[in-house]
Structure formats: structure tokens, C-alpha cells
Amino acid sequence: MEICPKCGLPAPACVCNEIAKTQQQITVGTEKRRFGKVNTVISGFDDGVDIKDITKQLKMKRACGGTVKNNIIELQGNHQGHIKPILVSMGFNEEHINE
Asked: Within 10 A of 98 (CB to CB), how many other CB atoms are there?
């Protein structure tokens, strides 16, 4: 059985990922791009969370395209008011998400 190197618990019972989610300071904003397009930018993710999985779930729930660049999630379109409830349902702390 594998043991987590961070918390010392067996891999199926590891809670490192959940603890890391509650300690993130996340900022949600918009950015105007070329030709008047608007992107939603979500930043503030540290190591310890699977940012690619978070991006995949956000894109699926908001039905939009997006990417990850330098630990910053970029979603196509203006989704600023809709991101916070989705992140809270994923396990992030509501008080640490700034819009």
C-alpha cells in the first residue's frame, strides 16, 4: 500500500488535496483581448491542486473553451459571476475567492 509523503496516510485516505484547496487565495477577473473578446482569468492557484482537472471541470460546467498558462486559468467569455459557486462546490473556501 502506498503512503502519502506529505501527510503520512495511506494513499486512499490522503487528505492533502482537500487541505490545499481550502488554503488557496483565488482571484477571478476579466481581461479584454484582441477584437473586443473577453476572457475570464482565474489566478492564485498554488502547488498541491490539480489545476488541469479544475480547468476541465470549469470548462465543462460553463460550456466554454479555455486553457491553463503559468498556473492561471483562462476561460473564453465573461463568466465572472458564475465561477465562485462552482469553485465552492469543488471544495474551495468561499472567503478566499475574490471577484
From this structure: 11
CATH number, span 26-98? 3.30.780.10
Q: Where are the domains of the chain?
A: 26-98
What's the gap between Cα 22 and its chain centre? Answer: 11
User: Minimal CA–CA distance to 25: which of 87, 81, 70?
Assistant: 87
Amino acid (1-letter code) at residue 8: G
Residue 51: in which H helix or E strand, if any?
helix 51-62
pTM: 0.82
The whole-number average pLDDT for the span 79-83 is 92
Please state the φ and ψ torsions of residue 91, each to the nearest 5 degrees.
115, 5
Which amino acid, one-letter code, is at 4?
C
